[in-house]
């Protein structure tokens, strides 16, 4: 118990210690059933105790005064909107009468909530794209910490929890949840992971801790990967068509090469025919000469035969004169065919190389496509 005479010193000590207790504290004195003095830790958002407050006769403090003994109580959230641990010490006058109480109320904070002011500023700068860390009780945000690179201004300390927020769902389900949200809601795509915070004694959910990170890089990677994959698919399709065309060209060149070889063979046969014609022309000329000799011997009776013999000789000479022309044409054909044959062989070789190169490009495109798919998986995992 506390002597009335020592109360001023106790108040002075409380003024000093109020900002030394982690999580904050509220000190108060009660005279009769009325609170006459209150001291809050700086920054403690708790306005349930104030000078002039009338206490219920069944409260912990009034019981301590009546029974002249120190009383402790864990106050649930339903009473003051936050969980408290209250200690009340009776104040005794010179006659030993209990005239009031000195009370101390400490918010019952989850360890994560207590440590939040210490670890949150450091943790917030460890995310390359930025982060917002948030703490809630069962009704509202109680603390937030944003990095320099990223913030969600609409989610701040004191803002009530709406039903559509992930924190509300985690409180109901009592399970960790992760959600990805597109850029329409907060201006950038984000990923939120929320974790329920449990009371050590009752194992009931008392709040949540959530981590929100922007996913602009991952979204950009996914978009780039999708575009790359689509473009590669189109390129691969085009190259496959090119490969099919190259194969067809190769087949056509092969057929052309075969045709040129056949023409070469026919030209050689033309030479043979020309040689045969020359032989016939020579023999015909000889026959015409013999016929002229015989016509001269026959005199008047062989004159007609002589005309025929002369005509045979003329035809023989014409045939013989035609042979060089045929030979020249054949040689020209052979030269053209040989030139075409060389071009055909070169084209055939080029088409073979094109087909081989196309196959290599197709294989490379498939490898790049595979890499793009892996990149897409990585982007989704970020």
From TrEMBL:
| Domain of life, source organism | Bacteria
InterPro entries in UniProt:
MCPsignal_dom
Which cellular component terms (GO) are annotated to the entry?
A: membrane
Region of interest: Disordered: 340-382
All copies of the Methyl-accepting transducer domain together span: 238-382
Q: What is an annotated GO biological process for this record, any one?
A: signal transduction
Mind listing the UniProt keywords for this protein, alphabetically? Transducer
Spell out the protein name for this chain: Methyl-accepting chemotaxis protein
């Amino acid at each position: 118990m506390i002597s009335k005479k020592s109360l001023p010193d106790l108040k002075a000590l409380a003024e000093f210690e109020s900002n030394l207790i982690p999580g904050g504290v509220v000190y108060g004195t009660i005279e009769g059933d009325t609170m006459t003095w209150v001291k809050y830790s700086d920054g403690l958002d708790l306005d349930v105790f104030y000078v002039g407050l009338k206490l219920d006769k069944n409260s912990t403090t009034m019981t301590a005064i009546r029974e002249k003994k120190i009383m402790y109580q864990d106050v649930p959230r339903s009473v003051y909107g936050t969980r408290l641990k209250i200690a009340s010490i009776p104040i005794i006058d010179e006659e030993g009468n209990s005239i009031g109480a000195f009370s101390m109320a400490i918010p019952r904070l989850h360890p994560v909530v207590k440590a939040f002011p210490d670890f949150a500023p450091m943790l917030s700068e460890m995310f390359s794209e930025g982060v917002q860390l948030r703490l809630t009780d069962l009704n509202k945000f109680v603390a937030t910490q944003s990095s320099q690179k990223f913030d969600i201004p609409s989610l701040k300390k004191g803002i009530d929890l709406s039903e559509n927020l992930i924190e509300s769902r985690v409180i109901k389900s009592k399970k960790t949840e992760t959600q990805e949200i597109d850029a329409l809601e907060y201006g950038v795509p984000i990923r939120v992971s929320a974790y329920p915070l449990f009371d050590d004694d009752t194992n009931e959910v008392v709040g949540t801790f959530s981590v929100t990170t922007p996913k602009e890089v991952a979204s950009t990677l996914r978009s780039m990967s999708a575009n790359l994959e689509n473009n590669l698919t189109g390129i691969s399709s085009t190259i496959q068509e090119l490969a099919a065309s190259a194969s067809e060209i190769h087949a056509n060149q092969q057929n052309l090469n075969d045709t040129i070889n056949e023409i070469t063979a026919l030209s050689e046969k033309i030479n043979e025919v020309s040689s045969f014609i020359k032989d016939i022309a020579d023999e015909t000329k000889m026959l015409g000469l013999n016929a002229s000799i015989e016509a001269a011997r026959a005199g008047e009776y062989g004159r007609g035969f002589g005309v025929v013999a002369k005509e045979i000789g003329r035809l023989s000479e014409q045939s013989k004169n035609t042979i060089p022309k045929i030979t020249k044409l054949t040689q020209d054909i052979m030269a053209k065919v040989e030139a075409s044959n060389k071009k055909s062989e070169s084209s055939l070789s080029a088409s073979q190389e094109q087909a081989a190169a196309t196959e290599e490009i197709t294989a490379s495109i498939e490898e790049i496509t595979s890499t793009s798919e892996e990149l897409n998986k990585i982007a989704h995992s970020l």
